[in-house]
Amino acid sequence: MGRPVPLGGRTVEVLSKDEVIQVHKAALEILGNPGIKVQHDEALDILRQGGAEVSEADQIARIPPHLVEYALNHAPRFFTLCGRDPKHDLKSGTGEVSFSSGHGATFVIDFETGERRPATKKDLEDVVRLHDALEHTHLIFPEVYPQDVPPKALDRHISQVLLSNTTKPVVATAYSGQAARDLLKMGIAVAGSEEALRRRPIFTVSLGVVSPLVFERDRVDVLLEICRFGHPFQIYTIPSAGGTSPVTLAGTVALTIAELLAGLVLTQLVNPGVPVRLMGYPSILDMKYGNFTFASPEKVLMGVAIAQILRFYGVPHAIHGATTRANVLDAQAGYETGVFNMFTALSGSEIVIECTSSGIENTALSIYEQAVIANEVCDMVSRILRGIEVNPDTLAIDVIREVGPGGQFLTLPHTREFYKTEQWDGKISNRLQRDEWVASGKPDIRQRAREEVKRILATHHPEPLPPEAQRRLQEIVEEAEVKG
């Protein structure tokens, strides 16, 4: 069964049509004044030649509405991010909802000892393999950032692991122009040729806007390299309401949209028609503790609003789903994963980020069992999104007449035919009667998830890269360790 279209297209909306227009107009005003700060001379020149008003002294570009219109008219409405295995290809514009893994943990809970420790490259390999097996992970981000590799080559190490340990589409990493060129070399080695990579792009990479309204030099270098090649690219921004954006949700949404549109304008001036996905992850600065958190209902509301506006533009997009603030796999981790995933999936966003994340502690800590639990949540969410199918067979009027008052439906062919598609049955959720559960050792959800992790890591081995591709990726990594 394919990925679901939320309730036949009946998505959750938190803004009225008039409010969508108000936010759009506010974003255009922000782009015109104060504009954006671009710490990159070449990019400023590109914006100037495109029609922006540029102040070189303070590196400010003020973007007029006609440039936004130009970008929206030239950016593709549809594109496909490919997996090494075509069955995993991720297509935009279908109305289906896809889920991704998490991103960026620097610590893990050791699967054998249960101790918290810095993440390693082996951890990243394991968690990528885990997500390759989880049916509701459709796009794989670098779930953990290895702390046992040279920092100047971290991005190449991450990309090597992603490209080597899954046949699904991935979000690779590049922190500089040189790293972006190395990443393209990696892609060519895996695809077999430059032409093959252009035909079937097996990764994307991102530029993160630094809120409020700053485009850093190294990040822009990555944009220039990837977009000139014509490879799919992502623009994302993570403002914190009350910290790097207005404390009001509407103000943060307007700023987010302005930052995403500015990135879109730059990509389309660099290479008109290059495929781009816009991704808005705003959340809040927790005023009680003074830190940023993804685990907030306000994050969900803003994410759904952003999905609504980006659907209005008709551009490929993604929003943030579930990240828990919990420090252990407890009820808080469960309800935050469930509630946030459910509501954001109903937004109709093409991709909901971090839905199957192994991350807890606001993404700082990775615990493998959480990825399996989140996958179970997404399985249930997908069933809800599928909704109720209404047709003569499912209305079952003839069956009801056949049974009549006081009868039973259990033994009927109609029940045998439809129960597997009509009823959800989880892989690790407990549905045992109490005596059966006691007899089985009283396992809780983490124990059942742990057994599933063990099974996957022991038996699931994605198709390896050809030896020549593996050798080339290792060469690129080793060169980066020396040269940066």
Number of strands: 20
Q: Report the sheet with the most strands, covering strand number, pairing sense and barrel closure.
A: 7 strands, parallel
Q: What percent strand?
A: 5-15%
Please state the CA-atom Rg, rounded to the nearest Å: 23 Å
Number of helices: 18
User: What is the terminal separation in angstroms?
Assistant: 45 Å
- Strand ordering within the main sheet: 6-18-17-14-12-10-9
* pLDDT averaged over residues: 96
Unreliable parts: none
- Please estimate the helix content: 40-55%
Shape: globular
* Class computed from helices, strands and strand pairing: alpha/beta
Give a structural overview:
- With 484 residues, the protein is α/β, with parallel strands linked by helices.
- 47% of the residues lie in helices and 13% in strands.
- The protein is built from 18 helices and 20 strands.
- The chain has helices spanning 17-32, 41-50, 65-74, 121-133, 154-164, 177-191, 194-199, 217-229, 249-270, 297-313, 331-345, 368-386, 392-395, 397-403, 413-422, 434-439, 445-459, 467-483, and strands at 36-38, 53-55, 60-62, 80-81, 90-91, 98-99, 107-109, 116-118, 170-171, 203-209, 214-215, 233-237, 240-241, 276-280, 283-286, 291-293, 317-320, 351-353, 359-360, 365-366.
- A seven-stranded parallel sheet has the order 6-18-17-14-12-10-9. The chain has a four-stranded mixed sheet with strand order 2-3-1-11.
- Strand 7 and strand 8 form a beta hairpin.
- Helix 5 runs antiparallel to helix 18.
- The longest helix has 22 residues, at 249-270.
- It is globular and about 80 Å long.
- The model has no long low-confidence stretch (mean pLDDT 96).
